[in-house]
Amino acid sequence: MSRSALDSERAGYSQEASASDENLFDVCDLTRNRPDVSGTIGLLSFGPLTSSEFCRARNPNSELKLAGSYPLFWKLGVSATLQQLKGIPRTASYVATNAQLAPLLGRNLAGCPTATGACNQTVTISSVLPPYSVWEARSTQLDVRLSRTMNVGRMRLVPRLDVYNLFNSAAVLASNGTLGAAYLTPTDVLGGRVVKFGGQIDF
Question: Residue 166 CA to chain centroid, in angstroms?
Answer without folding.
Answer: 19
